[in-house]
């Protein structure tokens, strides 16, 4: 519709007319006297033209056109770029190909809707991102590589954009498989979930149109096998057997036999088959606990790989295998414990040494059997029968020198021996007259029978693997309950290898160790370590006795003298990397050239950053850091090195695995129900869900919505406002007055 109207200066026609009349009167009435009527009319005409131009400008005649057009708006099309879109939609066509066809169909049909509708292409996986590209060609430039799906991310992006521009609505395309929760999608605070964000869209009048892709369930079609529940690491002893436990999950393989293979892989990458089992899946969806006895290999560091064979029709392969990291130490020890009095100490000592790798034989020789002394112990005191010997509160005559000589020979050949304090042991038990007198690290002839009265508080004399107790409670020796007394050990021998490890606060030696031949020997002057257990220090009690036995076995490498390397996890995905800690004891801690690296199986090295913390009390150095998120999936060694990397002087390593993130692929079923529910939450605003073959209906709905959402467009052309009409009026006005002045000058009137 068009019309003419007057838009006078100051919005007042009378004021504009009055100003124009005044100006016209001034121009017309103030004229010089002249007799030539022709010249007079010429000057009057020029002045009238100038007055007319001024009058037109003041009155402001305008040409107005009023149109009804759809308002300018933007339509967001969100495309799913997560890995699950690469899966098949029940046939040979992938969901990604279907999405490509849907997007191209939408773009072609939307071209006919309105020129004032801008298409905003949006991609989403774990986050939503807009792309500066032609929507029709963008889908061909993308690929489904996202490892998580956050359905809320495109909805939240649309809500944020609605604050800056007019949004027609959101078309959400995808399989609806949401694998990210709102707490993971936002690091800056609580984020709206998908249903919450859809409700907010409805409250501000924005529709959500969804196009689900993929079937709701593929339980009858998809096949998958997964190994799960395998512990991350083991610490075992050579020559033993342990039960390996894990679970085998299967889907779509009811009644099918699934081979499961176990392999040892050493530090050089050499693989050895350990076992094969064939597990039959009992139902379409099955979780079967598996237990397999496994023999440990020779000492060393290994990976124990549990792998289920790839079954026909499987699409997800990484979950068929799980790896555990195993440290195999030299085999366990055989302990022979001789006791004369059934005291409390022996009960708690035997309980403390209950470990899978330690086999303890207990022999009690009661005092009322004195008439049959010496008791024959057969071959029990020989190196062929046992590795460590513990002598409790037992008189020497109960066994006899002949058998004590057998024990002496066993220690000289490499066995371990510890003698405990008590009423009938050491000098009080007559051992100074036996072959063992020359084996022990104390001089029994100079001890006497006097005991050390209590209460006694123990303290370490030097740092040693036996007395460095890394218990869970971080207990110190000073925290242990005082003891009621101890046997007097006198003065330790002056011999190589003899050391006092524990003493009382008065300086009396209470634990002395040494060597005899190829064996290790210890004398412990106390017989009340059970009090530690009773007063709540059970872990400390067990650790002390284990470390003492391991030292006697010469297998104390796990007691803290070497570099201690730990990780918060040994298997993890790259988006949740583990932390690491290296504790370096003195004197190694004095070095300042330590490096930490992640070494891949192919030999590639990734330097790692870490913080250094020194312990002034114990002289230990602590290196602490976090693995980066840039590590690709695979097997690695965490290596701590002192010295140059080419010629390290000290190093330690620990294996770990970066897992391939298969959350998108393992959850292959689409969730069209969720997509329809999200659209239904915006029903009041026109939200609706459509099938992949209903894009024409969606475009018709958008077209009708555009027709309802119109804006009144008013086009007004006022005389003098535009550059063309303004210049024309100015030139006419200036030409009229200029010509009038030139003529008057020529005619001699100026």
UniProtKB/TrEMBL annotation:
<feature type="transmembrane region" description="Helical">
    <location>
        <begin position="12"/>
        <end position="31"/>
    </location>
</feature>
<feature type="transmembrane region" description="Helical">
    <location>
        <begin position="724"/>
        <end position="743"/>
    </location>
</feature>
<dbReference type="InterPro" id="IPR010768">
    <property type="entry name" value="GATase1-like"/>
</dbReference>
<keyword id="KW-0472">Membrane</keyword>
<feature type="domain" description="Putative glutamine amidotransferase">
    <location>
        <begin position="404"/>
        <end position="552"/>
    </location>
</feature>
<dbReference type="Pfam" id="PF07090">
    <property type="entry name" value="GATase1_like"/>
</dbReference>
<keyword id="KW-0812">Transmembrane</keyword>
<dbReference type="InterPro" id="IPR036465">
    <property type="entry name" value="vWFA_dom_sf"/>
</dbReference>
<dbReference type="InterPro" id="IPR029062">
    <property type="entry name" value="Class_I_gatase-like"/>
</dbReference>
<keyword id="KW-1133">Transmembrane helix</keyword>
<protein>
    <recommendedName>
        <fullName>Putative glutamine amidotransferase domain-containing protein</fullName>
    </recommendedName>
</protein>
